[in-house]
Amino acid sequence: MTDSETFLSDRPWLTSAHNPKLKSAVRLKNRRYRKKTESFLVEGFRELSRYLEGLKKGHLGFLPPVTLLFCKELFLGGNEIDLLQAFAALGTEVFHVPAHLFSSLLSHRDRPDGLLAIAPIPKRDLFSWNPDYISRIAVLDQIEKPGNLGAILRSADAAGIQAIFLSDPVTDAWNPNAVRASIGTLFTLPLFQGLSSNLRIWLKSRGVQLIATKPGNGRKVGEINWSKPTGLLLGSEQFGLSSFWLQHADQIVSLPTLGSADSLNVSTAAAIFFFAPLIG
């Protein structure tokens, strides 16, 4: 028997839908339960691989998952066991779950890949975060939909955004849909949440220019000096930026719209603004 086979055979089975660990995983789909237990779900090989990457960075406040549930019959690749062993080495409890329970009870996906973890929500203090330099930070003001939040995080990671600030947050960053839409980049980007007034104090105390995004006749993307430390302000899907951020912005930038729609989906607009300085 190989080391991998021995590892799998030594994992306990959870075979009842009434098992407390499985019931807890199901309840973590609910925001109130996530808040109460200060825990959230991470599903999928790609997402858990990035979670492990975030753990290795050390400065993002992540701790090893408490529990990792797996179903070998649902694995899609050949590296899942290595991932399980890496988490087990960090102290995570690893349990085998039958395919019918994993697919029907635990997973959020049409085609689950047999991996789901329960992890502690990281505790972070913005005022203890002191990067050596500031390039571009995205400030997301009252974003409402977890899928949009996750998509923005994915674009931000790809475009080299340094950090994400959630201003007066409405949606839960640890919602399973946000985690999934981010494809795990939630675990590799510094993310902070707070009141708009506190976030502004942090940004202005570090000389960050505040660039508000707004449909209409703001400045063109190419007219902004993106080489300065920049806080890019993006508003909610329904209402856009709050009056607070519009009043305190140093400049307002807009995207041209040529059709009948007067605005873009916030995740689409975010991606354009994130990549604009890279394209030139």
UniProtKB/TrEMBL annotation:
GO molecular function: RNA binding; RNA methyltransferase activity
Stretches assigned to coiled coil: none
GO terms, biological process: methylation; RNA processing
One Pfam family per UniProt: MRM3-like_sub_bind
InterPro entries: Alpha/beta_knot_MTases, MRM3-like_sub_bind, Ribosomal_eL30-like_sf, rRNA_Methyltransferase, SpoU_MeTrfase, tRNA_m1G_MTases_N
MRM3-like substrate binding domain ranges (all copies): 19-117
Residue span, tRNA/rRNA methyltransferase SpoU type domain: 137-274
Record keywords, A-Z: Methyltransferase, Transferase
Superkingdom per UniProt: Bacteria
PANTHER family according to UniProt: RRNA METHYLTRANSFERASE 3 (PTHR43191), RRNA METHYLTRANSFERASE 3, MITOCHONDRIAL (PTHR43191:SF2)
Family classification: Belongs to the class IV-like SAM-binding methyltransferase superfamily. RNA methyltransferase TrmH family.
Name of the protein in question: Putative rRNA methylase
Organism: Candidatus Similichlamydia laticola
